[in-house]
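In practice, a research group might receive sequence data for several interacting partners and want a quick structural hypothesis before committing to experiments. The following worked case mirrors that situation: the sequences arrive first, and a predicted assembly follows.
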Amino acid sequence: MLQIKNLEVTYGAIGALHGISLSVAAGSIVTLIGSNGAGKTTTLKTISGLLKPKAGAIGYEGKPIAGLPPHEIVKRGLSHVPEGRMIFANLTVRENLEMGAYLLRDQKIVRHELDFVFATFPRLKEREKQIAGTLSGGEQQMLAIGRALMSRPKFLMLDEPSLGLAPLLVKTIFERIVEINRERGLTILLVEQNANRALEISHSGYVLETGKITLHGDSASLRQNPRVQSAYLGG
Amino acid sequence: MTEFLQQLINGLAFGSILALIALGYTMVYGILRFINFAHGDVFMLGAFSGFYLAPKIAALLPLPSIAGGIAVLLASMAICAALGVVIERFAYRPLRHRPKLTMLITAIGVSLFLEYTGQFVFGAAPKSFPQILPVYPLARLGGLSLNSNQLIVFGVTLGLLLALRFIVLNTKIGTAMRAVSFNPEAAALMGVNTDIVISFTFALGSALAAAAGILWAVNYPAIDPLMGILPGLKAFVAAVLGGIGNLPGAALGGIIIGVTETLVSGYISSTYRDAIAFGVLILILLVKPSGLLGKKEIEKV
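A structural hypothesis for the assembly, expressed as tokens:
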């Protein structure tokens, strides 16, 4: 569904990604693990159009999308839950979700998506009229994911959804991610530092180190890999 | 007492006009975090649009009349809205990813360009603005004078404020404006074309400035190409006073500056009239740097 070939991204003179290639099959959960500064967020931001690549290609459903502006990429069915959640703290929960459905014209579909998000995260329904900035960290993460789902994506990118959350909440969030993948057939690219959990729920994974892919394979075998174990799984 | 009420009415009328200009400063700041110093000149061009449009509209509608006056007002607002979009597109957009200072200096350049192109095209001598609205003396209660033009200033300002409030709070593009002002990157990830939202913001702000220009010219009917400088600066001060980026704050700031200035020039000395706005600015920056209704910006690292 998504193919990246030799992608290079630089910040000014500093290289962030040095020719990475990866692919995500339709219907799968693929995880991208790596330490801080490895280039995980840069990869997602480049896919969603927030950053322009210096070289390389990104193909989505067989068509090139590299270098398109973000709103064009959302239109094609890719949705990005950014690092740090980036919810609109000045808008209500409801308005945040409506922003997620910004490109949908049919109000019936918007209502339907809203019901789906509220069913997935009942907490958001309780907080519907509240200003989003007053939500707890976990609720904000739910809102960020819910907001990304409102655009009816076919491909969802999640940037560190577990960051700063209590273990119990992390569990809930990961369960929801698996559920959405199974029930909606949504393809997911998951960026995580919590490699253990990410490899548990994903089908395959890539290890990113200082802008290069150093390992990839199915998640089960990555979990057994001694290098991955010592570097990312605390083994 | 009568004199005080009279000064208050005059101050409110002046303040309403400043409020309309201040809204444009604050909206653009809210979205781009930049002060559009050419905004006062858009106000001037609003008045000049009215000046050149009035004879054309007089061919269609009777002037002075309420309908004709409103037609001049709306047409000038439309012209300036388009102008605001053009200024942003060609002067500011190419610099959007440059340091903010570059854009700020460009704004000063655009301002000078409009002022002196105005002098070149319209002539530097003041022009007398045609009467587009019928004037009725409304009240003559014990020396208090209120005429229909002042009432129109209040009415038009109130109407525009309510319309703006509706657009910002209840429409899709308004929600997108608030989203972009909070976090442009996140808004882009929702599918918002930030360029369109920014253009729309400039159109809205410039239309309000044009309305202010017309209302100004109706009440003080001598217009010249440099007339936007001082009201522009005072409206900027009003926006800072209310809390830059905050819409009700800009309206409140305009009213406060307008009333204070009129009362001081009425009771103390009109020599200090122009110093008032800046005195208030210094005071506010000392006591509450974020402005009356502004929130503290929390820098996240």
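Before designing any experiment, note the following. The longest strand of chain B covers residues 137-141. The domain at 2-122+148-287 of chain B is CATH 1.10.3470 (ABC transporter involved in vitamin B12 uptake, BtuC).
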